[in-house]
Specification:
- The protein is α+β, with helices and mostly antiparallel strands.
- The protein folds into two domains: about 60 residues, no CATH class; about 50 residues.
- The chain is built from six helices and seven strands; from the N terminus they run ββααββαβααββα.
- The strands form two sheets. Strands 1-2-4-3 form a four-stranded antiparallel sheet. A three-stranded antiparallel sheet has the order 5-7-6.
- A hairpin with a 2-residue loop joins β3 and β4.
- The chain is elongated, with a radius of gyration of 20 Å.
- The termini are far apart.
Amino acid sequence: MNIPENIPTVTINGRKCLPSAEAAKLLGVVNDTMAAMRCRAKSGQVEHPEYLTYGRLIYYPLDALQEHIDQIHGGQLPTREHSPEEVPDGAVFLTSRQLMTRWQIGRARFFQMNKKPDFPQPVKMGRQNRYPIEAVKAYEAQMMGCAA
């Protein structure tokens, strides 16, 4: 599997590289996961592609990414069932990011709405808030002026 040619790259020390965030998208993980993998790779716990630092920024050479994809992923780019913002069928709870995507609003507007008393009450799961889908649908119906 070859890395797509249309990905924007930078050249560092004569090697074509991807910024860390773009490499994370390519591998189907979030950038924080890449940082955690780098830390665990230093202790030998996980396989991680070679990377270069340029100031405080991290870049992954394309050849190292290709080798990692060939070794770890069997030559196939990993795929996801759905993106974190999409709501899978049968979901019982939604994240705040999923709600912002669903309603096409930004964080500031979301937290303004969150302060209102009729906003769906979140359920705390660890350190994260999740919103029951039934409460979200009832709120949407109320906002549209329909009976819930």
